[in-house]
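Sample intake sheet
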Amino acid sequence: MKRFSVRLVIVLSVIVAALVYCLPTFNLALWPHKKINLGLDLQGGMHLVLEVNTEKVVESSIERNFQEIRELVRRNQIQNAIVERPSPLKISLQVQGTENIDKLKTLLEKELRDLRISNRRQDAETFAAVLDLPDKDVQQMKKLAVDQALETIRNRIDQFGVTEPDIRRQGENRILIQLPGVQDPQRAKDLIGSTALLEFKLVDDAHDLNSALQGSVPAGSEILYKIDEDRDTKRASKTPFLLKKSALLTGASLTDARVQLDSQYGEPYVSIEFDKKGARMFERVTGENVNKRLAIVLDNKVYSAPTIQERIAGGKARITGRFTMEEARDLAIILRAGALPAPVT
């Protein structure tokens, strides 16, 4: 009897041990286990190194200051003033007349203290100066651009749904990205690398488009294209638009972007919504430009250019473009995550 009991204990012990070893093979939610995340070498995926074009950030800042100076000169009625950009990173000013010189100097002291006067020349009747950004500000601007690009890319990838991505800064202006398990690398690249600069620009109907296409582009205007792709033949067609260079509104004030279906044709479009400040600006822009065409531009590509029928309140708009559902979803992700501060390559 005693020998039988010993055998029984041994048999039961073996059975229990076998169950313990076998249980992890069953997908039991209550069974404690640690998931092993497979890296690129085991499950495949995408490895990418992007370089942030930080020079573009500085150029954009100079462009904003350039436009602001022109507006300030006009608003303060400074006569005989010439404001130019002799190079991408510099602004030149020249003015004649004692009264105008005094006005411009006051402007430099009060409104433009962030800019450095790198060259100055003055005589009895003429004042000239070259402005740029201080070196310290340029370096800080470049660093912040990479930091912001890193955060924006993280946000986009999080919404893309990649498990255990590895995203880190590499060197001064590069970003290393590893995305395990990604099945569509090209789609991921497009989503990550799109600058997503959303702008609303007026169509320049006051000048002739054909003349502009032949080289006579009016000052303050530019030619951008709307690109349509035939879904059957995959052939792309380009429609030119002559637009005002200055954007009346950008995507900086966006709070949301969602995919919606058109009730008439059932095609997807992206519905966007602005914050309170952006809504007020959008209402003002549409109210001041009734019966004019307002182009919706993303990364220098025209998506649509509808005619403004009336003042639009509420801060909502839509982006159409004969999207597939996947294209519309990706565009919404990009817009929600925010624009990159500079192009990446």
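Comment: Residues 64 and 316 are 26 Å apart (CA to CA). The first strand starts at residue 45 and ends at 51.
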